[in-house]
Each structure stands twice: as C-alpha cells, then as structure tokens.
Amino acid sequence: MTPAQLDAADPLAPFRDRFALPEGVIYLDGNSLGARPKAAEERVLQVVRKEWGEGLITSWNQADWIGMPQRIGDKIGRLIGAGEGEVIACDSTSINVFKASCAALSLAPERSVILSERGNFPTDVYMMQGIETLTGRQVRAQLVQPDQIEDAIDGSVAAVLLTQVHYKTGRMRDMARITSLAHRHGAAMIWDLSHSAGAVPVDLTGAGADFAVGCGYKYLNGGPGAPGILYVAKRHQEKVIPALAGWFGHAAPFAFEDRYEPAPGIARFLVGTPPVLGMAALEVGVDLFLEADMAAVRAKSISLAQLFIERMAPLAEAWGFALASPADPAERGSQVSYRHPEGYAIMQALIERGVIGDFRAPDILRFGFTPLYTTHAEVAAAVEHLAAVMEQREWDRPEHKQRSAVT
Ligand SMILES: Cc1ncc(COP(=O)(O)O)c(C=O)c1O
To answer: Count of domains in the chain?
Structure first.
C-alpha cells in the first residue's frame, strides 16, 4: 500500500486534529517532547484564570488540586497495566528513580548491589551512583554490558534497574521475562518506562514488576517538564518508609506533626507540593491518550517505523547510515535510530527543512513515531528530505556544525 492508502485506512487518523502542529513541520521527536494537545491551552488558561485567579488557595480543595497526583496517576496506571492506587504523577523521573531505588534497597537490607547496564540513560546511572555515595550501607552500583544483565543477576542484587525501551537504540526488553528472572534471584525489578509509556503496550501487573518510573512529557504529551510517573506495586507499599519523607507523603499533612508518619498506600511516595500547572497539562495529554486503543497505537507505530526503514534502505546504502535499532519490530519501541559520523550536522540540516528529529552523541540520529499524530505520508516525505540533505550536502555548512546546548 502507498503511504496515502495507509493513512486513509488508519483508525487513529482523527486524533491528528486534536494536536496543535505547526504548518510545514514533520515532527518526529515526540519520543523526546510530545506535541501539544490543542485542549491543553484552554485547560491551562482555565487553571490560571479561574482556579488560580479566582479560586486562589481554595482551589486546592474546590478544584481538587490536592488529588491531582493520585487522580492522574490512576489514569496513567490504566495505560501501563497498573492497578488503582499503584501509580502517582509526581516529581521528575530522575527523582522517582532515586525514590524507587531507595525503596527497593530498603526491602532487601542484607543485599548490596543495584544492577544496571552500561549505556543506560545517564540519570538512572547517576542516581545509583548518588545512592552509593549517600548510603551508610555498602551499596555498590554495578554496571554490566547490556547482553550480560541476565547473567549478572545473583543473590547479592537488591534491585535491577533497566530502561525497557532504550533511549538511543529503541531496543525493547522483555519485561515479563527479566522481571521473573530477577525475582528468581530474590531481586526487585525497577523499570524505567520513559520510552514505553504511551509508546508500546505495557503490563506491569502481568509482568509482576515491583517499581517503575517514567516521563510525562514524551509519548504522553504532558508538556515540557511535565511531572513524572512512579509505580509501586501494592504488595510493597506499606513495607517501605520513603527515603524522601516529605510532608505530602505524611499520613496527616495538615496535622503538622513533628514526627514523620507515612501515609497509607501510594500517597507516602509523594514529597512536596505538586506543580499544578504542569499537572493540568499532563492530565489533558493522558485523557487524550485514554481515548485511543493501545493495540491500534502499537500497530500503527510498527507500520510507520517499517515504512521508514524500508524507505531509508537506499539512503543507508548510498550514504552510510547504519541502522542502530533492532530490525525486528517485536524488539523495538516506537523510535528508529541510525548511526552516521556526521549525524549532528545532518540532523540540523533536516531540522532546517522542517523535519524535526534529534541527535544523541556520539553519532545517533533518532526518529520517533507517535501514532496519534504522525502520518505515513510524513514519514515518506521525511526520507525524501533526508535524501536531499545528503545529495545537496546541506549538512556540510558551518552553521549545521555549531552544537547547541540541547541536541
Ligand atoms: C530513559 C530516561 N530516563 C530518565 C529520563 C530523565 O527524566 P527527567 O529529566 O524528567 O528526570 C529520561 C529523559 O529523557 C529518559 O529518557
């Protein structure tokens, strides 16, 4: 089928109009920052004008600002196979990695290792190293090669911390299999779902996961810097005394007691005052996503990515792009990456043409496929732009080699 025919048969096509996308832009970076749902503007204005402007502090109760972390968390929970009361929207993903790792460690006081892979997203690894420095216990953050993770899980491991869909390559791990392997060795499993939530079907309950974290601003379209996600399986919640014992996680925050008493359930993993404006925008993105059928999202994601890889084949051959993502869609999330020594400059030239992807050092060009608003026609056109960038050596201009702060 042609891209136009694929788009005509696309059951998700009506979602496109729910997003504000600039004219003339082909956006292939929703894996980094999701596009803006049109409704987010109105909702944030409503919070600013009415709930904040008129309701002032009464809005904590009247507009249920206080309930946002749990309410939005439960909605996200439905997208990632969690039960009610197992997910909260709060803090950043980095902070939630810290909270989940400390919680997992506290469940296994006799064990000393948090295990992860080399090349994992840096914040996850840095948080492990931070915990190692901070803790009085002899915790060791251990990093092994990606293909050695399974062999490295043994009786010393308190927790395995892995990103399900790798941020550079898009390689997707088998969540159920690795979780059960960790459990067989008595280790807890912490999944970073930053590139999974809203990208691929996730079943935390089915996999038996212990903890999970994720980003709200990527595939969930929650807006720049949107609050993160924290999942703690019900069976662990009452056993953990949170490392970040904040007043929002207290059993009675407005009793203002001197002594910390953790709230029952997932609420104990809250720390401080939620960012209400960011929460409001996130909720719009999540609500929109809940209207979509995740199986259809996955099917279209694969269809977009396969079209991209197919159209890229002659360019890969002619210009030396090396596929850095698994060729098998079953092993890949919702992005496709290529390596090229001039990757940075090529991406800048592509962006100048209105095709927005991104670059990850040292040589990765990343293209994200977001089925709610990306079309097959755009994917085909993006490859044509890339061909022109290469044929006309547009990348070889000095301005495309100037590195910006964010790549
Ligand atoms: C896999 C992964 N984990 C964690 C993070 C960091 O999230 P934050 O900066 O929101 O703390 C990112 C950000 O891109 C990510 O891709």
So the answer is: 2
Residues in Cβ contact with 256 at an 8 Å cutoff, skipping those fewer than 6 apart = none
**Which ligand 1 atom sits nearest the alpha carbon of residue 217?**
10
Domain range for 338 is 3-30+293-401
pLDDT, one tens digit per residue, over 266-287 is: 999 999 999 999 999 999 999 9
Q: Are residues 353 and 216 part of one domain?
A: no
Q: Which of 247, 275, 290 is the last residue of a domain?
A: 290
The question of whether 38 is a catalytic residue gets the answer no
Give the nearest ligand 1 atom to 228 CA. Answer: 10
In this prediction the pTM is 0.97
Is 192 noted as a catalytic residue in this protein?
A: yes
pLDDT in tens, 62-118: 999 999 999 999 999 999 999 999 999 999 999 999 999 999 999 999 999 999 999
Boundary residue ending a domain (290, 316, 349):
290
Q: Region of 106 please: left (phi>0), alpha (psi -120 to 50) or beta.
A: alpha
Output phi, psi for 347, to 5 deg.
Answer: -65, -40
